[in-house]
Amino acid sequence: MKEVIRSQRLGEQYQKILHPSGLTILLYPMEGFKSAYALFATNYGSVDASFKTDKDEDFVTVPAGIAHFLEHKLFESEDGDAFERYAKTGANANAFTSFDKTAYLFSCTDHFKESIEILLDFVTHPYFTPQTVKKEQGIIGQEIRMYDDNPDWRVYFNLLGALYHVNPVRIDIAGTVESIAQIDADLLYRCYHTFYNLHNMTLAVAGNFDPDVVLDAADRILKPAPKQELTRKVADEPDTVRTTLVEQTLPVAIPLFQIGFKGKAGKTERENLWGKTADEVLLEIIAGDSTPLYRRLLEAELINQTFEGEAMANRDYSLTFYSGESRDPKRVRDEIATEILRLRSEGIDPQLFDRVKKAVYGRYLGAYGRPEALAGLMVTAQFADVDAYEILEMLASLTLEQLNQRLPVSFDVERCALSIVRS
Amino acid sequence: MSQTCVRTSIGTGIHLTTISDPKFKHNLLSINFVLPLDRDRASDNAVVPHILRMGCRSFPDITSLNTRLQELYGANLDASVYKFGGYQVLELSIRGVDNRYALEKEDITAQCARLLAQIALDPKLDGNGLFYETDTALQRRFIQDAIEAEINEKRSYAISQCLQTMCQGEPVAVKTYGYPETAAAITPASATAAYRNMLKNAPIEIVFTGAGDAQAAGKILADAFAGLERTPFAYQPVKLGPAPASVREKTEEMEIAQGKLVLGLRCQGLETPRQIGAARLFSALYGGTPFSKLFRNVREKLSLCYYCASRFDSATHLMLVDSGIEMCNKQKAQDEILHQLECVKNGDFTDQEIAETKLLMRSSLITTTDSPSATEGWYMAQILRGQMVSPQEDADLLDTITREEIIQAANAARLDTIYFLKGKEEAQ
Fold first, then answer.
1. For residue B427, what pLDDT is reported?
2. Range list of β-strands (E), B232-352
3. CATH class of the B4-225 domain in this structure
4. Which of A358, B116, B235, B402 is deepest in the core (most CB within 10 A)?
């Protein structure tokens, strides 16, 4: 089943194919580009800690960090690892695990056919033994230790831990040295067979490649996956924040901070994607670098150029936060809260809204100009059940009224937490 | 549909390089001022682009300037400072969407070029012709913070400390933002003097990368720079001294969970692009890919680390190997890293490993041409290396390099310094 998705605004198009194996394939050839970027992703990340399929009697809860562990382990097969296979094609290969997805990727300028075959093959052929699992515990143990020393990472997860009581988003994606010690080959296979079902996966390719080569490889390599019903346990998360302040001591120069606001997740992933877009505009309106507040904070030396805002939303969480360096993070938090309350009573300045929207539009356009960004965008959109252009249209159709309504939901000063890392 | 790169002289020591590529959706325009790294001047130089980024006469404060950038579809105006060999490069750049995506047919590219010229050449100055005290104080604080914040990222901190130990007294050791005492001494007068010196004496490289009208944007910048009175110094790539007779060792302590081991090597006697190409291949084969000697052995076989990589710097011919490890595994990791180095020096690698390394490097090189910023970075590095080859030509050169040349390059590498950042005893 093939569908062509078009954007009038960009004058571009791509193909969406529902492959007989169950896999969704998104193909975006880009004229003039030399490289191709492929992303083979499963709708499975660190937050999917408790789940069941129609074949399971009850929910199973797995150790934290297992999605990421699985990502590492899939690179290995009985006859060597995937990096060694890619070495023969010249592709730059990698993988990542986030809160809500695990993705395997490569970028190449030549031998695309061989590289896409390797990608489809190794991700669909798991191979774990007690020995290889043990070896990986050493490597990932060092990855976790590396993040333990990373103040940006710590200030971020401390914030998530402050905002959320039980939602697994509060746990580090790689888990802990203790949690990964509980992982064994059987558990890995269980997670694999649940989440690496092709109906739960998407392949996105952008750049310089021939779509027929991808479809041909998929026909040869992919076997039809059984239909399954997958239920993820929704965390019973209270509306309130767990704590309003969390501090950690690490060797840093100036204290790092993140000020987070716990939002309300939408009913669908599409709603969450829309909400995230709206929140990105709101972050700019409250304390973006063209606002009077930003200038006040900068001139008072309460923030510096590292100050920025970010919105996140997936599955069953939605939040926004500002991060930066400050000698007085509590005052930054108070000033931001005051500005939010002012905006709530006075409303958002329509001119500022128009300008910010235009600027965010320009920023979004960038993602449609690079193969790697575009492949990522297609996957994100697909998992939210929209097409890749809809993100741009969501932004273009945002109204001032919608934002005035969204403001108290996403930026509730009663549901705010401050995370600080200082030495 | 390929890139065309043209470099022309548009003034005394001022060059304009345009890389046109119709596939890009953005245009990136950068002005790069090249200055010798100097311990006493580094902070004053580094603060200049950051002060300029605070506003110009037409947009005299950060709010009006950033408002203007939003009107230009969220154009990115960046001030940055980076090191290249023995030089400090001060960069001002603007990146905006191409005119074909303007909603009201505005000429965004020309407006971005004009704004960038104003930022570089028409700063707001007080009655004495100096930068304002308030802007200077803010950016002095930023430079001081940036210097102190070096300890935040342990991996890059350890690398920097290794370089400091290794190149003490050489210009390449001078830090990008200078030092606490030189940063504290920044005043409106010293920063303005650094600005005037930069306009007068720095070689200036203007680079346009994108789909838009490079000629028009180039002309705006050329006209803006036309009236300057200039006596630029003659730029020469730096040469470093030899490795010491005995290996330097330095260990520092910090409250950290993971130890950081960095080995600094000097690759001596590399003269030609071929020899440098051979050294790049050697470094990649040794520790620059996920199938390199270091990745396969230190990570995958011995399970000692998450990362263990080597990087060769074409500007200085220094090579750094770094890894994050358990404190107690320092000697084990160091022994294996050096053992693998001996293996490469002895030619203990297959033709297949060479071919695969070349293939990966080619792919990475050609991929740079798919992004405006990577393309700009590539050509700026070419200019600073005193050559002008495309990524394609560079990949073609690497392809012709032989096993013997790689072994020669490996044998030119001398271990200079072993640096280890370890946890404090009580923290372990």
1. 43
2. 248-254, 259-267, 305-313, 318-325
3. alpha beta
4. B116
b (16+ CB within 10 A) / e for A269-278: bbebbbbbbb
Mean pLDDT of the region A193-213 = 97
* Centroid of chain to Cα B313: 10
Q: Note whether B25 contacts A368, CB cutoff 8 Å.
A: yes
CB contact under 8 A, B145 and A325: yes
The string of pLDDT tens digits covering residues A273-282 is 999 999 999 9
Nearest-CA distance A179 → chain B (Å): 18
Least CA distance to B97: which residue of chain A? A362
Beta bridge partners of A93: A106
Q: ipTM for the complex?
A: 0.90
Looking at residue B233, the DSSP 8-state letter turns out to be P
Q: Do A365 and B97 touch (CB under 8 A)?
A: yes
Which tokens belong to A223?
């076997």
DSSP state of B243: P
Q: How far is A316 from chain B (nearest CA, A)?
A: 31
- Give me the CATH topology for the region B248-427: Cytochrome Bc1 Complex; Chain A, domain 1 (3.30.830)
Q: Which of B363, B373, B426 should we substitute to test contact with A (largest number of A Cβ atoms within 10 Å)?
A: B363
| Minimum-distance CB partner of B325 among A140, A142, A325 | A142
State which H helix or E strand residue B275 sits in. Answer: helix B273-287
pLDDT score of B1 more than 60: no
> Quick one: average pLDDT of B243-270?
93
Residue type, B98: D
The pLDDT tens digits of the residues spanning B394-424 come to: 999 999 999 999 999 999 999 999 999 998 8
Chain A nearest C-alpha distance from B105 (Å): 14
Q: What does each C-alpha distance from A421 to B23, B151, B152, B258 come to in angstroms?
A: 43, 13, 11, 18
Mean pLDDT over the full length of chain B: 94
Q: Give me the pLDDT at residue B298, please.
A: 87
CA A364 to chain centre: 16
* Cβ contacts of B223 within 8 Å, gap of 6 or more: none
User: For chain B, which residues make up each domain, given as ranges?
Assistant: 4-225, 248-427
**Residue among B296, B280, B300 at smallest CA distance from B340:** B296
Provide the shortest C-alpha distance from residue A60 to chain B (in Å): 30
> Is the separation of the CB atoms in A421 and A246 below 8 Å?
no
How many angstroms separate the CA atoms of A159 and B358, rounded?
44
Task: Tell me the C-alpha distance between A201 and A224, whole Å.
Answer: 13
Which of the four pLDDT bands, split at 50, 70 and 90, describes residue B426? low
Contacts of A10 in chain B (CB under 8 A): 101
Catalytic residues of A: 71
Mutation target to probe the A interface, by most A beta carbons within 10 A, among B21, B65, B70 is B70
Do the domains B248-427 and B4-225 match in fold? yes
A186 CB-contact burial (10 Å; exposed 0-12 / middle 13-18 / buried 19+): exposed
B179 touches chain A (CB under 8 A): no
Read off the tokens for B51: 């002060």
What's chain B's Rg over C-alpha atoms?
Answer: 23
pLDDT at A138: 86
Q: Which of residues 101-140 of B touch A (CB under 8 A)?
A: 101, 103, 134, 138
The partner residue sitting opposite A299, judged by closest CB among B138, B300, B324, is B138
Contacts of B26 in chain A (CB under 8 A): 365-366, 369
CB A294 within 8 A of CB B138: no
| pTM, entire model | 0.93
Is residue A363 within 8 A of residue B74, CB to CB? The reply is yes
Distance CA A258, CA A294 (A): 15
CB-CB contact of B142 with A305 (8 Å): yes
Domains of chain A: 2-232 (3.30.830.10), 245-422 (3.30.830.10)
